């Protein structure tokens, strides 16, 4: 889509990974281990932010995957040990990937809505004989008349 800005995949992924690690550190300090939903929400917000700021879907999804490994290894388990907890981990991974996709869609929607608004304004201007009325208004306002 014209007007859609997207950061390079590597840059977005590096920034997203750094943000995930920082978010995990803060989340571990703020929320106790039994508060698994709050920890997941914090990580999902971080991943969605990476999707919005980067505007790059592959990097956002990769950031979501990295967030799952950090969440699983440090916020669900301890000391970076990755284990599979069945449907609970499937839900966590799904939430993080959905957050990445939602963030990317939000980044995509803004230019699309702006372009639609500009098209609507142009149609209104043309339907109202915008060119003739603007020339007439300019002519009346000029000192040479």
Tell me about this structure.
79% of the residues lie in helices and 0% in strands. It contains 5 helices and no strands. Helix 1 (9-30) runs antiparallel to helix 2 (36-54). 28% of the residues are buried. The chain is mostly helical.
Question: Nutshell version of this structure?
Answer:
79% of the residues lie in helices and 0% in strands. With 145 residues, the chain is mainly α.
- The helix fraction, in percent, is over 70%
Low-confidence stretches: none
Encode the helix/strand succession as letters: HHHHH
Beta strand count: 0
Q: What is the alpha-carbon Rg in Å? A: 24 Å
Largest sheet: none
Tally of DSSP helical segments: 5
Beta-strand residue fraction: under 5%
Q: What is the approximate shape?
A: elongated
End-to-end CA span: 44 Å
Mean pLDDT: 86
Class derived from helix and strand content: mainly alpha
Map the helices and strands.
Elements: H1 9-30, H2 36-54, H3 57-76, H4 87-127, H5 130-141
Helix pairs in contact: 1-2, 1-3, 2-3, 2-4, 3-4
Key terms for this structure?
5 helices, mainly alpha, 145 residues, 79% helix, single chain
